[in-house]
């Protein structure tokens, strides 16, 4: 022990005699707050590491250390105890001589206590911590105040060590206390084991007190266990007192017997404990001390030391336990520490060895320090020489004036250089500072300031004065001086540095004059004046102010060259000095500009060598302009440039922004004017007297005259309002608005004095026009022609009626076709049975009647479908020839049709396109008759490519139909496709509207061109294909045999069931009938089960109140994917009738059908 005390004394002596950094004041305070108590093993380890690190770096003796222990292992850490502790801390350390320069905190309880109770008490004091387990604080602590190292048990490395030396089949038992720290560690264990060690069996056991050890471990006791200590410092003895760690470990190791006991904390590694990858209190303390060193030596780096806790863990093992489990030292991880090794000379006598070594080191240090002093003295003399040289070449007047001796002890040579006097002049006796060469008025003011400062015992003072030059002129200087007092506290000398600010002062004076002169100027006048003045003050070649047009372009608004205004120009911001911000808003290049920006056209053309620019921004931060001074020589006095341009740029920026707002306002006004002019409703604006001040184009069209004629007239003379019902004259709504300021919206009849003298139904809205103070300054009348609206409403009502009729027509056609189908089938059956043709003539008459009825039904169907085309591939030439022949037969109109030789195939609905041709030919015939005339038509192939601006790319057939009738007026031509518009008295106005609708639904195009007296031409384009037209089956002789074949018919109409069933039975088929989809599916299943699957099924698409064909075929396909089904309908809008194969059907049978249609299907599919 004596040897250790001697060694400690020697170390303390070395620490006290070693050199200290001059940055540290002696006896600054460091406050240490421990969660536990000083002699607690873990705390003791941290403090030993902390102090040993400080001693190594010669910082230990420069501070007083105050240690406060929360002692939470023994004391109840409740609110009362915490409050008492806060009061004690406040009494001892808050704004007292012991106030800490830094605070060192160990472990979680102290950290939590500080954050909740002491943080506001020491808001500016930096805090270093160690041993803190709560990693959640890592992202919550302010890194400018808090720094340190967190403690984290490395579960993975300990589990890896166990797997390496004991295998994967062991069960791991993690042992800990019930402290908050243990809870954090347990969460880490669960997370690590779940993510990285899924196949390993483990348990976590908590030991609240020493008496619980055996009962807790009894539940998991097995020979296959490996036990791991996490944290056991909070194991209690009784209610509150903590049990010594040695007692806890001895109790655990005794109980577990020969099983390995791993530790995660260095203080637990003792007799009976193997060791492991442990958290080291010593390393944590040393790391905290290194942070304190950084804080005191390089405080700017303090915030960078909030670190993850990997630097404070190490491998530590107990030698006897390694031997016990046959673990070789060379198998341990690199740098592992081993304790309790067998005796060695070094270990036994290391204190003496170290003492001798330290004495030798001390002697060496003494020699080195002596040598260093010699070197330091030499360096000091060299530094002194350099300092004198620096003072000699300084561009400021540096002086030391003694009031006692009334002379300069020192004055730099720059005084002679700047003022022109010889150095001897300055060493002649002076009664006071600079008296021989300072301006008289300035001297009096400076002397008064020095006297007042000396009376108040001030240490420094700032003066401003003029010094006379050898030529008799004066230059301005700003002097920052220190007052020096003698032992009696009387002013004895003054030492200072006088800065030449003459140019800056004169520039500022000139700028004040300029600002006063330009304060009332605006816009271009201000910009022109300011660039001339700056050019004159700075004596540079160019000055300009530019506004930014876009990201890459700027345009000067004022450009001065050699003091004279010159022509503005546009330049590219890219590759120019303005393309980068050297310092926020500034872009400064004092020399070699063209080398820096060789691609800049502006600098190259103007021969620029230096550039100083200020970028200007609006209130939202957008760049709006640039103020720049340029020269063809290098720039001097950079600070002057900055001061002047910075001052001017603020006002210039505001002026640019103001002009921008004005331009935007003008643009908005113009935009508003354009909007009003382009509004579809008529707009009239009047003043308070009702005089019209603004109208839009729509109103001009209504009135029939230009605005130049309308402006200045009173609205009463232009518009006359009448009651819609009585036609009596009504009050002008503008008068009502101007009288009471209300907003009126009403529908009236107004007579507008147009060229045609027409009267319109209008809807108008009249509102007061107000200024910024909400005073009425006029009225705004907005109205629209309600005539069209009423007509549209009538058309909508008419359309609704047509839709109702269409629904009725569809229903009638459906039932009618069912009856015709039954009738036609029965007639066919009679023909089949009338072998001797006794009734052939009568049957023929019946068939003709059925055909007429079928045509009537088809017209009803077309009307009811709303015009949806059933597209087929059709040869259009015979269709056109038949239509022309039929529609113009017996009239006075001749016709001629020309076609290409190889016409493409049209993609049309045959019936609907026939109606288009009929409508166009009826119009042409009615236009020509009773006179004679001619209709010509041409049909050609037309292909539109990607460059076609009118038609979508693709193949078309182009039909041009022209007549030589009287033609159509232009105004009427614009409405020719409108519903119910007709140029003929009594015309319905629907023919061309339907024609237009049909062509559009075919994805085609239709155009009309007409000139009065020269006839009308319609041009139609319809889609075409290179494929051949659809073939119609023409076979009449079928050999049908239904022997041993079955057909299933589903239809809700009894007549259809009987008639179709009779014909099929006539041809030998076994016929089964179903009335709806449910019955059909049942019978189809029964036939399949009997191995008598139908050869063909006929399904009616619509079954009122039951399952129709589409739903039935879906379910039938689930039973039999090879089913052959034909869909039937007398009328349906379903797509299944157009594209049966998309819905599982093989074909379609439309009712009423002819016998050949049915036989064709039987021949094809049975």
TrEMBL record:
PROSITE patterns: HIS_KIN (PS50109), PAC (PS50113), PAS (PS50112), RESPONSE_REGULATORY (PS50110). The chain crosses the membrane at residues 352-376. GO terms for molecular function: ATP binding; phosphorelay sensor kinase activity. The modification 4-aspartylphosphate is found at residue 1100. Residues 668-741 form the PAS domain. CDD domains: HisKA, PAS, REC. Its EC number is 2.7.13.3. One of its GO terms (biological process) is regulation of DNA-templated transcription. InterPro entries: CheY-like_superfamily (IPR011006), HATPase_C_sf (IPR036890), HATPase_dom (IPR003594), His_kinase_dom (IPR005467), HisK_dim/P_dom (IPR003661), HisK_dim/P_sf (IPR036097), PAC (IPR001610), PAS (IPR000014). Residues 1046-1166 form the Response regulatory domain. It comes from the Bacteria. It catalyses: ATP + protein L-histidine = ADP + protein N-phospho-L-histidine. It is an enzyme of class 2 (transferase). Keywords: ATP-binding, Kinase, Membrane, Nucleotide-binding, Phosphoprotein, Signal, Transferase, Transmembrane, Transmembrane helix, Two-component regulatory system. Residues 1-25 form the signal peptide. Residues 461-513, 746-798 form the PAC domain. Residues 811-1026 form the Histidine kinase domain. This is histidine kinase. It comes from Flexistipes sinusarabici (strain ATCC 49648 / DSM 4947 / MAS 10).
